[in-house]
Amino acid sequence: MTSATQDRPRAPVYEFDFYLEPAIAQDVHKAYWDLKEKAPPVFWTTANGGHWVVTTADAAIEVLRHPDRFSSKFLSIPPNPNQPKMIPESLDPPEHRPYRQLLRPYFESKAIRPLEPRIREWAERLIDAVIEDGECEFVDALGSRFPVSVFMEMFGFPLDQFDTFRNIVVEYFDAQVDQQRREALTMQILGSIIQLIETRRAEPQDDLISTLLQTDFEGRKLTQEELISIAFLMFLAGLDTVVNALSFGMRHLAQDDALRTRMIEDPAAIPAIVEELMRRYTFVSVPRYITQDTEIAGVTVYAGDSVLVPLHMVGWDEKLTSCPAEVRLDRPHCRHAGFGSGVHTCLGIHLARMEMAIFYELWARKIGHFHLVENQPLRFRGGSVQALEALRIAWDRK
Question: What domains are there in the chain, each with its CATH number?
Answer without folding.
Answer: 22-394 (1.10.630.10)
